[in-house]
Design goal:
The protein is of the alpha+beta class. It is built from 4 helices and 6 strands, in the order αββααββββα. It has one domain.
Length: 128
Amino acid sequence: MDEAEIERNRLYPRMIDTGRGLSPQVALPMNFRELVPRFYEGSGREYIEGVARATSESIAGMFGSLDYRLAWNDELGLTNIGIGIHSGFDLDPDNNEFREHNLVGSKNGILAFVIAASYVSRLLGNRR
């Protein structure tokens, strides 16, 4: 595989079976820092906050309510998706990906996955 193919493969957000349950895996493009200003200019933050709210409400209808928090940085974009007291999806800017903690096999992982995957899609310029 060449570098371009490796990059394309790692960009597909997915849920991975870890043996303990499903875990979200979401990577960012290598040049994500260059894309953040355009993301903000295009009302990306507001869009992602709407996705988070709608998804949380949808999941609440099936599994009960979830408390979530989104953390933003002017240069890095979305840096954390905190869910409940002990779960989250943190940006690892050195490796261009989100790292989960306590999300494996839980409804929290579903919410984090949808938010992070939607963020990457919007960051890449997709408007839906």
